[in-house]
Design a protein that fits this description.
Strand order of the largest sheet: 2-1-3-4-5-6
Structural class: alpha/beta
Helix content: 25-40%
Number of helices: 12
Low-confidence stretches: 218-227
Mean pLDDT: 87
Strand content: 5-15%
Radius of gyration: 21 Å
C-alpha cells in the first residue's frame, strides 16, 4: 500500500511593474531552481497578475522577490484572495533606508519575510514579522565553468581586471583612481549583459574587483552595525562560475565562506589592490586554490536550490506547510 504524496505547488510572483529590475532577475534564478527541484511552478511573468490564473493553479505557497514595486495594497489583495496560502517575500533591496521603511509597512502582514542583512533581520523582528536570515545565492544553470574550447578561444571577456554591476559612483571612483596609476584599464561590466555574457565574464576575466560602494558607508552607527548592506549576488555568482573575485569584507561573509575560499581587500588604497593582484598573478597556486575552494563551497551550500529548500523547511517547521508535501 502506497500513501499518496502531494507535489508542492509554488506560485512565483514577479513585481507588478513589469520592470526588469534586480528582483525580476532573481525571479529568473528562482524559476530555474524550483524546476530543478521538481516542484510544480506558476511564474506570473511581468506586469499585472492574473488572479484567476493563480487561483486555478491553487498554490501551496506564494513567493515574491521584492523589487521596489510591491505595495501594502498588493499584499491586502493577495491576503483577500488566498486565505490559507502562506505568502513569502525575499528582499534583495535591504541596503537603502527608504526601501526598508517601505517593506516595514507590510512585513508583519505576511507569513514569512526573508532578508539577507542582519539589520533587516532585527528591524523586521522588532516590527512583529516572522523573519529569517536568507543570504543571496547563485544560479548554477547561469553561472558555471565553461569547458567549451570554442567559447574559450573566442570570448570577448579575456581581460586582466574587471568590475561587475550597476554604474554606482563608488565603483566609478575606484575605476578612475585605479586607471590613474597606469596599471590597467579596468573593464566595467554592466548588469545589462546577457546571462551567457555574465558567465563568460566570470570565467575569463582574471580579476573581478568588488570595492567599497557608497551604500557600504550607509548606517555607520546604525544600531551598532558598521553597515546595513549584506552580501551582494556576485559574492556567490563569481565563484559559482569558477571565477576569481577580490572583494571587501562585508557583514556576514565569514558565516558563508572560510578564509581560504575568498580573496579580501580591506583598504581603499588602489596601490594596495594592485599589489595584491600582482601577488596572485605571481602565486597561481594560491589563486587557483581560492577559485576551486570557493567553487566547491557554492556548489555545496549556496545555490538557489539550497535557499528554496531552506524556505520550505522553515515554512514546515512554522506549521505553515503540510509536512507531507514534496
Amino acid at each position: 500500500i502506497f500513501k499518496k504524496v502531494d507535489k508542492m505547488r509554488i506560485c512565483l510572483l514577479r513585481t507588478p511593474s513589469g520592470i526588469r529590475d534586480g528582483g525580476n532577475i532573481m525571479c529568473d534564478y528562482i524559476n530555474h531552481a524550483i524546476r530543478l527541484l521538481g516542484y510544480e511552478l506558476l511564474d506570473t511573468g511581468f506586469g499585472k497578475w492574473n488572479i484567476n490564473e493563480m487561483k486555478e493553479f491553487n498554490p501551496d505557497w506564494i513567493f515574491h522577490i521584492h523589487g521596489y514595486h510591491l505595495t501594502l495594497g498588493h499584499i491586502e489583495d493577495l491576503k483577500n484572495n488566498f486565505k490559507n496560502v502562506p505568502i513569502v517575500i525575499w528582499s534583495q533591496n535591504d541596503e537603502i533606508e527608504s526601501w526598508r521603511k517601505m517593506i516595514l509597512a507590510y512585513s508583519n502582514k505576511i507569513d514569512l519575510y526573508c532578508t539577507y542583512t542582519k539589520v533587516g533581520l532585527e528591524e523586521h523582528k522588532n516590527n512583529g514579522a516572522n523573519v529569517m536570515l536568507l543570504p543571496i545565492a547563485a544560479d548554477n544553470t547561469v553561472f558555471y565553468k565553461i569547458n567549451d574550447d570554442n567559447i574559450k578561444n573566442n570570448s570577448k571577456f579575456k581581460f586582466r581586471c574587471g568590475m561587475f554591476g550597476s554604474i554606482e559612483s563608488g565603483r566609478r571612483e575606484f575605476q578612475v583612481r585605479l586607471e590613474a596609476t597606469g596599471f590597467e584599464t579596468l573593464k566595467f561590466f554592466h548588469s545589462s549583459l546577457s546571462y551567457a555574457e555574465m558567465n563568460e565574464m566570470c570565467n575569463f576575466t582574471g580579476f573581478l574587483v568588488d570595492p567599497w560602494q557608497h551604500c557600504d558607508e550607509y548606517g555607520i552607527d546604525y544600531k551598532g552595525y558598521q553597515v546595513a548592506w549584506g552580501l551582494p549576488c556576485r559574492t556567490f555568482e563569481v565563484p559559482c562560475a569558477g571565477g576569481f573575485q577580490l572583494q571587501i569584507e562585508r557583514p556576514g561573509l565569514w558565516e558563508v565562506f572560510n578564509e581560504d575560499e575568498v580573496a579580501i581587500m580591506n583598504t581603499r588604497d588602489v596601490n594596495e589592490w594592485i599589489d595584491k593582484i600582482k601577488f596572485y598573478e605571481q602565486n597561481l597556486d594560491v589563486y587557483n586554490s581560492i577559485k576551486q575552494k570557493g567553487w566547491e563551497r557554492v556548489q555545496k551550500e549556496h545555490l538557489y536550490i539550497h535557499r528554496i529548500n531552506q524556505v520550505i523547511d522553515r515554512l514546515k517547521s512554522d506549521g505553515l506547510l503540510k509536512k507531507d508535501l514534496v
